[in-house]
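Q: Hi! First time doing this. I have a protein sequence and I read that you can turn it into a structure. Is that right? Here it is:
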Amino acid sequence: MSLEIQAYHDSQTSEHKDICNQLCTLINLELTEAESKIWHAHPVWFLDGNPIVGYSKQKAGIRLMFWSGMDFEESGLIVKGRKFKDASIFYRAVDEINEEDLSRWLKKSRDIQWDYKNIVKKKGKLDRLK
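A: Yes, that's right. Below is the predicted 3D structure, encoded as C-alpha cells:
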C-alpha cells in the first residue's frame, strides 16, 4: 500500500479505517497489474491510465465505486443515473464486505471498461474499451 493511501486510511475513524484496509487488500490481491494512487482526494486503481475502482468516505459509509459497474449487471451494486457507467456499494462495517462478490466485481472491472481516461478530450462521450 502506498504511503498516500495509508495516510488516507489513517485519517478515517477506526471502523472506516478497517473497511478501507480490507478493501485495499482485496483490490490489490485481485488487480495486481493496477496502479493505485490518491485521485480527487480518495484511493483509486487504474488499468492503463483508466480509473477502474476506488472508495471514499460518504455520509452513508465507505462507498466502493466501479467506474464501469453499471454494465456488470450485479444486483448488489447501486446504479444512479445513466450519463456515466458507474455503480457503487456502501459499507458501514468491515463484516459487510462479501469477498466473493468483491472478487467477482473486480474481475468484471478488468473485463468491462469504458474510456474514462479520455472523457474530457471527447467532451463527455464515453466509448467502450472492453
